Each structure stands twice: as C-alpha cells, then as structure tokens.
C-alpha cells in the first residue's frame, strides 16, 4: 500500500512538472520549429568568437557544469553574467534532483543587453528582454530572479509583509522609484506630471549612464523639449531616496515603467505582484518571457500620461475592482512567477537541445580553441580545466548582500547597479 502511495505521488509530481513546463514551452517549440527544422536536424554550437553586442556563448557540459565563452570582467553586464551563472547552476541542480537531466553538450548565445537580440544565428539566441516583440531570439528569465529557491524566498517574505498590512492602513498613493538613464523618456513623462493632490510618490533615485542625476534630467529635458518649469519641478521634487521593497506593501498602487537605459524591459515588474497592491503598467512595447500571460483588466491595468489620474480616480471609487485586481496580481504571481516556473522555462529549452548538438565538436572547440578565452565558476578537475571567471564571488553572496546587489533593499552607499 505504501509503495502504491509512493508511486502515485511520484506520478502526480511528474504531471505537475510537465504541466508547468508545457505552459511555458509553446513559444519555445515555435522558435525551434521556425529556426531549426526539421526536428531531428543538428543544431550548430555557439561560436564564441562571434558574440552579439552585449552577449556571450554559454556551454553546458554533459555533467551540467557551466562554461562561459568569455569573461566580461569589467564590461557592462558582468553582474548579469554571474547572476545568470548562479541561476543556471541552481536550475540544472533542480532538474538533476528530479533525474530529468540528460547528459548532452548544449550551447547557446545569450544577450544581456536590455534592448535584446538583434539577429538570429546558426545556434539558439536567447535574450532576457526585447525592445520590440518582432526582434529575433527566444526569451528567458532575467538574471535578477537570482535562482528558483532565492526567488521563492523573496516572494514568501513579500507576501508576509503584505499580509501584515491591511488595505485600510495603506496609503492611497502610487509608488515608483527608478534610475534616470538615456532611455528614460517615459519615466521623464511621469516626473513631468503635476501632482496638486499629492497622489504620486514617484522619483528618480540614481543616474544610469550619466555622472549625476541632474545631468541626466537636463539631457532628457533637452531631448524632449521640456520647459524650465518642468526641469525645476523635477529637480526639486522628483529626485528621491530608494524605497526598499519590504515597504512596497504600504502602498495601494504600484507602477511599472519601461527601463532606464533603452526604454526596454525593467526587472522592477517581476517584483510588483506579491505585495497585495494594484499593479499599473505604463504602456510600452518591450517584452519578457512571461508577458504573454499578463492580461489587462485581470492582472493589471495599462496607463500612460493621459490615463494615469483618471484610472486611479476610478479605482479609488470602485472597491470591487480593487479586490479583483489585487486577487489577479496574486494569482499571476502564483501561476506564472514562482521558482518552479523559472525551472520549467529553462527545462523546456534544454529539452529542445537534447542530442541535437555535436558532442565531439564541442569538446574540441571549447577545450582547445576556447582555452584562454573561456572561463568558469565550477571546480577545476582533470577533465574540466578553465580559467576562473573574475566575478565568481557574486555567485556565493549571502542573501542580504544579494538583495542589496540587485536593488531590492536599501543600498549602504550610492552605487551603479547593473542597469535593467
């Protein structure tokens, strides 16, 4: 009887895992069918000598160990590279724990630039975001999810904070904090809005790509033909301190804006659904891997400079809609943004590559041609000897330091975190 119960549970867990993987694999199947047909044909390995701008080759050893085609060291994106290393390591470990990892060589090109991939290649091209949905490449979770278990812990902590803060005790204001950068036109539009009723708690917190916040505001003002009055109001009232995400659930409204560097994705959005608040998303064209599951009017409401105030006003008067959107945000968090869905997304890609890339070619190319260029954070062995990546310490940070690095807690001093 106990054996039957064990078998039943194992089958149940397998069915849940497969259901989660299928829910995130439709576009994965479409991508491989469109770019690498027929389904049994060989797929080229990533050429580490020809990476796209802002990208690199990643090679996965049959054992699951990770090799980077090059070391970003002090280049823009070095933090993202090491965070991605950590995510992949934890994802692969979880797949191996479930005995679902198949021992084949796999490789792909990944682009860390927020604007996304610009061209398809002979090998799979992955990106963490796209400025426009029409761009080539397949989307994967951005590295600021850190790892499945780390992300689940973050969600649980956020939900606990939310549960401790009743709706009636929350401020009826809208919260946004973010960097000012060369692609921050939408954010500048937000900062320009008059706020005579003090409904907005919004502000720039740091400069991305400029020496100071003031320099960024002045550059955007010139680009957007803003008035001196706008500039004065922004410099006086819209340069604000960081708000730790543990305080987000003190607000009823949370706003997502396009990213600071190019106006593409911003990692801020993935953090907004677990705070028991109403999520508003500024209209934009950028996409991430989970955006196709977001439904306006169910999980969030879209806004822009013309509709933000009317939308907030209507919501404040409509308790039923408030409850509907809060419940929708929580359901989205539960159904699409937890750790098992991060694993499932990667697992569907690994499965698509199983036994479709040469084993001997990769060994020759990486172990011989890539020596001196490739790096790893894995332990060195007789059959696995590469230079150590310069920033491997990022992959071993304690949770509190990791939270500061990715910007969800208050930094101890001003810094320039990896842009999103």
Automatic annotation (TrEMBL):
Parts of the chain that traverse the membrane: none
Superkingdom of origin organism: Eukaryota
Signal found in the keyword field: yes
GO MF terms, alphabetically ordered: transferase activity
Keyword check for Signal: yes
Signal peptide segment: 1-25
Keywords in alphabetical order: Signal, Transferase
Family matches, as Pfam families: Glyco_transf_90
PANTHER family per the UniProt record, alphabetical: KDEL LYS-ASP-GLU-LEU CONTAINING - RELATED, PROTEIN O-GLUCOSYLTRANSFERASE 1
Family note: Belongs to the glycosyltransferase 90 family.
Protein name as annotated: Glycosyl transferase CAP10 domain-containing protein
């Amino acid at each position: 009887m106990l054996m039957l119960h064990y078998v039943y549970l194992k089958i149940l867990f397998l069915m849940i895992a497969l259901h989660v993987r299928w829910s995130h694999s439709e576009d994965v199947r479409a991508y491989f069918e469109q770019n690498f047909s027929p389904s049994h044909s060989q797929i080229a390995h990533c050429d580490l000598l020809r990476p796209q701008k802002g990208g690199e080759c990643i090679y996965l050893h049959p054992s699951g160990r990770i090799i980077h085609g090059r070391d970003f060291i002090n280049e823009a994106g070095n933090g993202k590279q090491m965070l991605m290393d950590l995510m992949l390591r934890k994802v692969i470990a979880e797949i191996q724990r479930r005995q679902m990892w198949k021992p084949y060589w796999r490789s792909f090109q990944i682009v860390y630039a927020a604007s996304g991939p610009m061209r398809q290649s002979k090998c799979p091209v992955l990106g963490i975001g796209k400025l426009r949905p029409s761009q080539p490449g397949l989307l994967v979770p951005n590295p600021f999810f850190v790892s499945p278990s780390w992300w689940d812990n973050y969600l649980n902590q956020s939900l606990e904070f939310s549960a401790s803060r009743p709706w009636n005790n929350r401020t009826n204001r809208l919260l946004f904090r973010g960097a000012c950068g060369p692609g921050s036109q939408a954010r500048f539009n937000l900062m320009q809005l008059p706020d005579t009723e003090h409904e907005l708690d919004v502000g720039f917190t740091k400069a991305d790509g400029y020496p100071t916040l003031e320099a960024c505001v002045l550059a955007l003002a010139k680009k957007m033909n803003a008035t001196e009055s706008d500039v004065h109001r922004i410099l006086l009232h819209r340069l604000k301190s960081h708000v730790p995400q543990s305080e987000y659930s003190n607000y009823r409204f949370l706003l997502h804006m396009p990213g600071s560097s190019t106006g593409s994705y911003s990692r801020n959005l993935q953090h907004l659904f677990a705070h028991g608040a109403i999520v508003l998303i500024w209209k934009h064209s950028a996409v991430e891997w989970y955006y196709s599951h977001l439904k306006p009017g169910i999980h969030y409401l879209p806004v822009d400079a013309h509709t933000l105030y009317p939308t907030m006003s209507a919501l404040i008067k409509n308790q039923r809609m408030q409850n509907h959107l809060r419940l929708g945000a929580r359901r989205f968090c539960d159904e699409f943004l937890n750790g098992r869905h991060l694993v499932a997304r990667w697992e569907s890609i690994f499965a698509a590559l199983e036994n479709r890339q040469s084993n001997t070619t990769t060994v020759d190319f990486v172990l011989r041609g890539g020596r001196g260029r490739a790096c790893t954070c894995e332990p060195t062995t007789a059959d696995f000897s590469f230079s150590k990546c310069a920033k491997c310490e990022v992959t071993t940070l304690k949770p509190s330091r990791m939270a500061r690095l990715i910007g969800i807690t208050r930094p101890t001093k001003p810094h320039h975190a990896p842009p999103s």
